[in-house]
Specification:
By secondary structure, this protein is an alpha/beta fold. The protein folds into 4 domains: about 10-155, Alpha-D-Glucose-1,6-Bisphosphate, Chain A, domain 3 (3-Layer(aba) Sandwich); about 160-260, 3-Layer(aba) Sandwich (Alpha-D-Glucose-1,6-Bisphosphate, Chain A, domain 3); about 270-350 and about 360-370, Alpha-D-Glucose-1,6-Bisphosphate, Chain A, domain 3; about 375-475, 2-Layer Sandwich (TATA-Binding Protein). The protein has helices spanning about 25-45, 60-75, 90-95, 130-140, 160-170, 190-200, 225-235, 265-275, 290-295, 295-300, 315-325, 350-360, 365-370, 390-405, 455-475, and strands spanning about 15-20, 50-55, 80-85, 100-105, 115-120, 150-155, 175-180, 200-205, 240-245, 250-255, 260, 280-285, 305-310, 325-330, 335, 375-380, 415-420, 425-430, 435-440, 445-455. Strand 9 (about 240-245) and strand 10 (about 250-255) form a beta hairpin. It is globular.
């Protein structure tokens, strides 16, 4: 490869790397990324020939990107073990099963076609967090590469080992009829087999692999995908609907009535189901999650603690690991089950299996189980455009503005802000349990806005109007991807 290296520095995100292929990064850039990652792995493992598991998702260009990445890794001395077409959790599992030193998964997850990226990690069950990403960016852009000679081997049929591991541990007795939707993403060759294997009757929806994503992006937060699943659940009289994202580490859930259930509520149901057998446990949830965790009686009765933490699969994963929490739940559908339930990483199919256990344990329909939670009015995750180079500054200014509104006791829908959490952007809460959130997206040029109220739909909207007013005033906000 003699082409000039192209690698946009903004592709190094908080906890993974993403670019539009050929526009922001080219093959030579990918090779350099491999060299940077290889050098970083060698530095941290202190081994000349560390073993690295590599996999790729089903995009038309993912395999050629993986090939360039592997060339870079091998040139530093890394020994590559290629498990082929994969889900991110399959690659994470491979690190435990094959006992390797690091992982690199070529995927842009649910991003639109044209995007590519890499999810990577060194410590088992964890992926790069901001410090590691910063170090990787530094090594790669400054070309501080080690040189060595690594080899490569193909690990055949590892998908079967991954599937079998989940199937063997999770047999269910109740016949659950499940719609399994994959948006034509890579999960289509994994999720139906595994859920059938544990004992579900599976109705497949868009499980045929098609890298053009002809209907919509495989993103379980996307309303279009959720509506399609809801229709299939009702048409087939199914017990539950599951929607998986492009690389299979997230799940979205639809109940038997065709209602979309936000993942933070599913997490709360799972936490309530686990709490009696795991008293004194900790649960970690991200700042986009429902306020109901803080007030839940079942969790209180079992002396369980909930910690609100930074959004992002790497952040929650690390916090779960650091706090030795039983599980972590992210609003976007990343769920993490720590020992004894899992290895600590996010696996959308394992998360769907935990929901099947919930149904298996209770003689109730999903709609009845969810209706036992107090009702709240919640917006979807909304993403107004904001340039990558401006989004963090915009949020810093808004943090100060919201703190001042609290100090000055300015009323929003006739309520005072009573708590401001700034662990990730700004989450401000009111005494009735309503709250609003503004943060910078970690993987796109946008902000993230969510509001929730247990009081009324009207209050939820008023809090959104307040946030939108603050955003418009900055003059740095573009169109929303979706809006209430």
């Amino acid at each position: 490869m003699n082409d000039k290296v192209l690698i946009d520095k903004f592709g190094f995100r908080e906890y993974d790397a993403r670019w539009i292929y050929k526009k922001d990064i080219n093959k030579a850039g990918i090779k350099n990324l491999g060299r940077g990652l290889g050098s970083q792995i060698i530095k941290h493992t202190k081994k000349n020939n560390p073993r690295v598991v590599v996999g790729h998702d089903y995009r038309s260009y993912s395999e050629e990107i993986k090939t360039a990445l592997k060339e870079g890794l091998k040139s530093t001395g890394c020994n590559v073990e290629d498990v082929g077409l994969s889900l991110s959790p399959m690659v994470y599992y491979a690190q435990f099963k094959l006992n390797t030193d690091a992982v690199a998964m070529v995927t842009a997850s649910h991003n639109e076609n044209g995007w590519t990226g890499v999810k990577m990690g060194i410590q088992k069950g964890l992926t790069h967090a901001p410090d590691e990403m910063k170090e990787l960016k530094e090594i790669t852009l400054n070309e501080k590469f080690l040189s060595g000679s690594g080899n490569e081997k193909q690990i055949k049929d590892f998908d079967k080992i991954y599937k079998q591991d989940l199937i063997e541990k999770n047999q269910i007795k109740k016949k659950i009829k499940a719609v399994v939707a994959c948006g034509n993403g890579t999960a289509g060759v994994f999720a139906p087999d595994i859920l059938k294997g544990i004992g579900c009757e599976v109705i497949e929806l868009d499980c045929k692999l098609d890298w053009t994503f002809p209907k919509y992006n495989p993103n379980p937060e996307d309303l279009e995908m959720l509506h399609a699943i809801a229709k299939a659940v009702k048409d087939n009289n199914a017990d539950i609907g599951f929607g998986f994202d492009g690389d299979g580490d997230r799940v979205g859930v639809i109940d038997d009535q065709g209602n979309e259930i936000f993942s933070d509520k599913i997490g709360l149901l799972i936490a309530r189901n686990l709490a009696p057998n795991h008293k004194n446990s900790k649960f970690v949830v991200d700042v986009k999650s429902t306020g109901l965790y803080s007030t839940d009686e079942v969790l209180k009765d079992n002396n369980c603690e909930t910690i609100y933490w930074k959004t992002g699969h790497s952040h929650i994963k690390r916090k779960v690991n650091h706090e030795k929490a039983l599980a972590g739940f992210e609003k976007s559908g990343h769920f993490f089950f720590n020992k004894p339930l899992g290895y600590g990483y996010d696996d959308g199919i394992n998360s769907a299996i935990q929901v099947c256990h919930l149904l298996n344990n209770q003689n109730k329909k999903m709609n009845e189980i969810i209706s036992e939670l107090p009702k709240t009015y919640q917006t979807p995750t909304m993403a107004p455009f904001c340039k990558d180079e401006e989004k963090y500054t915009v949020v810093e200014d808004l943090v100060r503005e919201v703190q001042k509104i609290k100090e000055d006791k300015i009323l929003i829908d006739s309520q005072e802000i009573n708590e401001v959490l700034t662990v990730n952007g700004v989450r401000f809460s009111f005494s009735d349990g309503s709250w609003g959130l503004i943060r910078a997206s970690s993987n796109k040029p946008s902000l993230v806005v969510v509001t929730e109220s247990p009081t009324s739909n009207e209050r939820k909207k008023k809090i959104f109007d307040f946030i939108d007013g603050l955003l418009q005033k900055t003059g740095k906000i573009g169109e929303y991807d979706q809006k209430i």
